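Quick board copy: two proteins, each given as sequence then tokens.
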Amino acid sequence: MTENLALFFTSFLIGISIAAPVGPIGVLCIRRTLSHGKLIGFLSGMGAASADTVYGAVAAFGLTVVTNLLTENTFWLRIIGGCFLLYLGIKTFLEKPADHAAKASQSGYLSAYLSTFFLTITNPMTILSFAAIFTGPWFINKTGSPLAMVAGVFAGSAVWWLTLSFGVGLFRERLTANHMAWINRISGAIIVIFAVTALITK
């Protein structure tokens, strides 16, 4: 139970850090919140959260099946994954908030959900991010359930989109590009911490 809670909490943070960088999907959710209300904005975010969960499940359950193979190649997985995460973290930290929304239909609740699900699921960087994270030393030797990982990723991503949509709805006049830039910096810093941990852990 304790191991599953630890896995859930770690995956929860990962779900937030992957969802939080403000790119075209984030801009789309913000625009939909401002134009059509908090519920449409939240459902748009849940489409992205669902896609993150799909990729998180692929990475988590796939790694469980080949645990022995991965533990035999931990060093190279750690180096490759750590380098990729370092690149991703620095890129996220330096990235400026997108100045235009991703193009998608905004007609109806189902359309809001499915459009962002499709836009996120077709991004190959997402699966690479989860694969790199789940090969890190904080996961490779854990014995908890992969369901805890998947649930944590979904919960973290969902909480982020709930916070973003309702926060924009309540404080839309105060949310500036500078705030979005800081969101990118914090997310990038979290990913860099994971990367450095992977590279220095023996």
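And the next:
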Amino acid sequence: MSVFETRKRNLDLMRLHEECERNYQRLQLAMPDSRILGASTRLHYRDQPQNGMRVEIIEVTKYTSTLLIVADNTGPEWLPEIEIKVRVYRDARMAEVIEWCSDRTIPWALSEQKGMQARDEKWQWNMFLSELLSQGLRHGITELEV
């Protein structure tokens, strides 16, 4: 591996960590305490109250929590619900996507290519989470159900 390739991989990992830190901060706005197993929050959009997302804590360990984020009624009828599993690292103050739509697990390493996965798939799904959370927070939350 050349020096350029090594530097590029390090930059990708740095950017991924920065995005995971921002996603943690966004999740803190939606669900401040991620240590209560079974707790859930429903975020409704101000202009479309039937649309929104649900954030539920499905697993809690000493340093991490696993959240299930379901974005429903977000697109055309033929588009299924978007389900994303997110691991929250409370000690590192980071959140990363670990699974989506219940059928694909994201590989830990960026360079791992199993099946049809792109080299930057982990980055893409964490960016998608970032956009989903930003959209929900930017367009107003009218109701939090805990």
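Board note added afterward: Residues 97 and 125 are 7 Å apart (CA to CA).
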